[in-house]
Write a structure and sequence with these properties.
The protein has 15 helices and 14 strands. The protein is α/β, with parallel strands linked by helices. An eight-stranded mixed β-sheet has the order 5-4-3-2-1-6-8-7, with helices on both faces. Strand 1 and strand 2 form a beta hairpin. The protein is globular. The termini are close together. The chain binds adenosine-5'-diphosphate. The site of adenosine-5'-diphosphate has 17 residues, from helix 10 and helix 12.
Length: about 400
């Protein structure tokens, strides 16, 4: 029996969607609402008959979601919402309770809501998708696929913070990690396309607006850069990543701001945006850097430095490296960022890329390493949506 599964993947500034026929994994339609809340937001839809991109103002996620669902009828992808059997929702934070995907019940909805305190830019958006779509799709069963699940294999000495232990035992404060659905997809893809040996020691650079670095050994996550929340780790589009924790109180006292206000700044106005004082968008920053903008250059330099810190550390913990992967918006599209990262690694390890391949790569999986390199460097288009479709299909059947 075939099923139509709608996948909703709400990020901090975008909503990606796919309608997938299972078990054939045929993508009936896909697209996204991008740059939500900016003056260059857009909607795209791609299927056999259409390939369109519209510039439309979406001021929030709710507008984007409703536009997507209306478009399925408008562009005759389906003729009735009854045709959709399942809906898979990416959920950023599953805490310690969710080490795998689940059917959404009232209890699950409540727990996701409570975990919102740990992922304020994501869990509320993920839940909003469920709350809107459960009323619109009469036949669909809804499944939550958590971004934290893949990292549940991280060992205790790696996920424990060096703070009073009762914060872990009583309050569950520990590293959880995110982008797990993407990392799982990439890990399987490397194994499938490059073979088992190439996938044994893997470092995945998931560089979107949210960004993380993950170390994978024999298919299992052993460490990842994000922590209790998606604020930790490397510098991101608008998030600061790891900083000295005392900075929070220092700014709070100096600028007469509450801790909540300071944290909002660290989540929404820091990272690339904060340093450049211009944009979180890497396309704009690279352009500005080339026209001599010093703040854009500093933002990019800090960004690269912090990525290299993690790669170096994970190289040691893995005891070497077989494949370095770049994925997500920046990782898949910015040849300049890939080159800057690899150039910094070159002095220490035998890694090298073919400049031509790096510039031209467009396939789903592209090995851009040069013939001198003993480490594979790959650009892989992540497909969190397909992982979500597979889990949803498994749970609704
Ligand atoms: P998220 O899912 O976290 O919202 P994405 O994975 O969609 O993020 O990545 C969005 C980011 O990708 C944006 O900051 C954008 O600048 C960057 N990006 C997309 N295309 C390019 C490109 N050609 N060059 C550099 N950066 C790009």
């Amino acid at each position: 029996m075939t099923n139509k599964i709608l996948v909703m993947n709400s990020g901090s500034s975008s909503i990606k969607y796919q309608l997938v026929e299972m078990p054939s994994e045929k993508i009936l339609v896909k697209g996204m609402v991008d740059a939500i809340g900016t003056d260059h937001s857009s909607f795209s839809l791609v299927n056999d008959k259409n390939k369109l991109k519209e510039s439309l103002l979406f001021s929030n996620h709710e507008e984007g979601l409703k536009y997507i669902i209306n478009s399925l009828l408008k562009y005759h992808v389906i003729s009735d919402y009854c045709e959709i059997d399942g809906c898979g929702h990416r959920v950023a934070h599953g805490g310690e309770n969710f080490n795998q995907s689940v059917l959404i019940s009232d209890d699950v909805e409540r727990e996701i809501d409570q975990l919102g305190i740990l992922a304020p830019m994501h869990n509320p958006m993920n839940l909003l998708g469920y709350q809107i779509l459960k009323d619109i799709l009469p036949n669909a069963k809804h499944v939550a696929v958590f971004d934290t699940s893949f990292h549940q294999t991280i060992s205790k000495d790696f996920y424990t913070y060096p703070i009073s232990y009762h914060y872990y035992t009583e309050d569950h404060i520990r590293k959880y990690g995110f982008h797990g659905t993407s990392c799982k997809y990439i890990t399987l893809k490397v194994n499938e396309t490059l073979g088992y040996e190439a996938s044994r020691r893997l470092i995945i650079c998931h560089l979107g607006n949210g960004a993380s670095i993950t170390a994978v050994r024999d298919g299992k996550s052993i460490d990842t850069s994000m922590g209790l929340t998606p604020l930790g780790g490397i510098a991101m589009g608008t998030r600061c990543g790891n900083i000295d924790p005392s900075i929070i109180e220092y700014i709070s006292q100096l600028k007469h701001k509450s801790v909540t206000e300071v944290l909002a700044e660290l989540n929404y106005q820091s990272g690339l945006l904060g340093l450049s004082e211009n944009s979180y968008d890497m396309r704009i920053l690279c352009e500005s850097m080339h026209t001599g903008n010093k703040k854009a250059k500093l933002a990019i330099d800090v960004y690269i430095k912090r990525i290299v810190d993690y790669i170096g550390s994970y190289y040691m913990h893995l005891g070497g490296l077989d494949t370095l992967v770049f994925t997500a918006g920046i990782g898949e599209n910015s040849f300049e960022i890939r080159k800057m990262v690899v150039d910094r690694l070159k002095g220490a390890v035998n890694i090298d890329i073919d400049e031509d391949k790096n510039k031209k790569c467009s396939k789903e999986v592209e090995n851009i390493s040069s013939s001198h390199s003993t480490i594979n460097v790959c650009v892989i288009k992540t497909n969190e949506e397909m992982m979500i479709a597979k889990d949803t299909y498994r749970l609704i059947c």
